[in-house]
Write the structure tokens for this entry.
Amino acid sequence: MTMNNLRYITVESKTTGLDAIKLLEDPYSGIIFTYGKVSFEEDDPNDQITMVFDYDILYDPLDERKEFVKEDFEQYIGDLLQELLHQELAKNNVTYTGGVDDENRTGDIIESDSE
């Protein structure tokens, strides 16, 4: 996020207390939303990985805007999510909060000896 081209700010969600994102650029200016589960699906025939994510719109100052093109909005916030992931990975600041399916697990957890 650069200060001279501010696309969003983080705000605290009044319902969850977690960070939410308020968009500052048109055509989505004022929308406040949160990301949910993020996962990646492999597309082996095309040698690609697709990012899949959930989101929840917490506030839209223009209720009539609910008619915006959902695919365009999802592309916009998907691009923003990629940007956020790149920024946080560069700072080594990404937290994984998922689990591991026992059937997909390939080994035992190894604990470090260092304290």
Observations:
- The two ends are 35 Å apart (CA to CA).
